[in-house]
Every structure is written in C-alpha cells, then in structure tokens.
Amino acid sequence: MLKKSELRPTVKGFYDRRTGSIQYVAACPVTRRCAIIDPVLDFDEKSGATATRNADAILAYVRDNDMTVEWILDTHPHADHFSAAQYLKGKVAAPTAIGERVVKVQELWKRIYNFPDLPVDGSQWDRTFADGDTFTVGDLTGRVMFSPGHTLASITYVIGDAAFVHDTLFMPDSGTARADFPGGDAAMLWQSIQNILSLPAETRVFTGHDYRPGGRKALWESTVAEQIASNIHMKCKSEDEFVRFRHAKDASLPMPKLILHALQVNIRGGQLPEPEANGRRYLKFPLDALEGAAWE
What is the pTM of this model? Predict the structure, then answer.
C-alpha cells in the first residue's frame, strides 16, 4: 500500500468550450473522496438563460466512479463564468470554500454594483482559507497558497503532487494571466508565479483556462519543470520586465464579455439573485464602470 506521502490524486478535467474554462475533480485513489474545483454554471448572455450542463456532467462522473464529494472549491471569484458551487452544494451537501481575501474583492465590487446590503465577510462560503491552511481530500493533504495578481483573492490549491493554479499560469504556449481587472496587480502576479514555480519540478500544474492558440486541442496539464522551460511569458527575467510586458499586453485586451454579469453572482459564492415579485431573477449591469472598451 502507498504511503500518504506517495499518493497522487486522480485528476479529471472538464473543458467548457463556451468560456475556455477547465473544471476539475481531484480524487483520492484510496478512499474515492474528491474535491470539485472551479465548477461552471452555464450562462448564455444573449438569451439570459442559465443551465447546469457542466455541473451535471461532473456529478455524473462522480456518481459513475463511486466518489464522495468532500469539498467544492473556487480559486477566486471568476470574471468569465458563473460559479456552480451553490448548485453543487445543493446536490451533494459538501462545504464550499475560497480564499479569505475574497472579502477584499467583495468590498471592491460592492461599490461598483452599489450593493449596500451585501455582506463583505465571506459568509457566502462555508470556509475561507488563509495562506498556508491545510485540508484533506480522503487520505490526501491539500495546502493553500495565496496567489494574488490576477485578482486580490486568488489562491492555488496544492493537493498531493497537483497544483490547481487557476488563472495565474496558462499552458506554456499561452503564458500568464492578465492583471488589469479591478484589484489586479502585475507585480503581485509575478511573485505568485515565482512561488508556484518554486514547487518541486515534477509537480503537475493544472490551469483554469485554455484558449486553444492556433486552433490546437484544449490542454490543461503541464509540470513546473515544463513551465520553467517553456512558458512564453517567462522569457521575462525580472519583475520589472514582466510588469512592463504585462501592462502593454493587458492594454491590448478587451474586457471579458461576462465580467459584469459574472462578478455579481460570484461575489455571492455562486448564488443567483433572489427572484423578484414576478418570480424572475435579474442581473444588475453598471454602465461605464470599467475601462477597456473595444469599439472596433
């Protein structure tokens, strides 16, 4: 029998083509207990329709493999998709969690949306993790690394030999995350990347998005060694060089199409707005709230 230190989680990625997001199930191979990481609630911005196709596919995988969900984990409040954490919690009764700095993101976006009654204490999740906190997934030990830069609250989950790095690092041919959202910081992003790349070289790196450069198939797994050797943005050899590069790159990028839709849901832990008197739910959409309009 393997020692706990030798256990490797079984990792299954679920790619959402509409948003380029990857959702994960990380499972202990001995106990078949698992964590679901960054699940997507389907949303069509043209019709306003929501669906649970992604989340239901994850639930089917868990059921078909006789797994028990121990955690529902988000790495940060996402700007490009709705979190399915609340929907999944209603199905499997597992606790939800995110990094404790989510309160800073809540404070920021509470002002942008003018949500005077929004609690900004992280109470929308069952647990808010601090840097260095540990948790278990079956016989596996998970550890939390604070990884800000892309957002104020971003964290990396290191479970066994697997690091779930959200939007800090992409696949080596795609580089690194942007840092120009409200609360983003390129210098902090550089330091977070250095911390991730200080993990053992054989650590498996699972990214939160893949946009299929050149039309290749979707990919989401690499290693620390591969990131160090091949990540196209790691040609920058100093923080100053990286910050200059990231600022110039980000200035050329449009805002994600769902950022104003998604953040109002995700700062509530994935809870959709309450139905109004007519039984319908409504999103609130602030005008002229963000820079980066793409007029062409």
Answer: 0.96
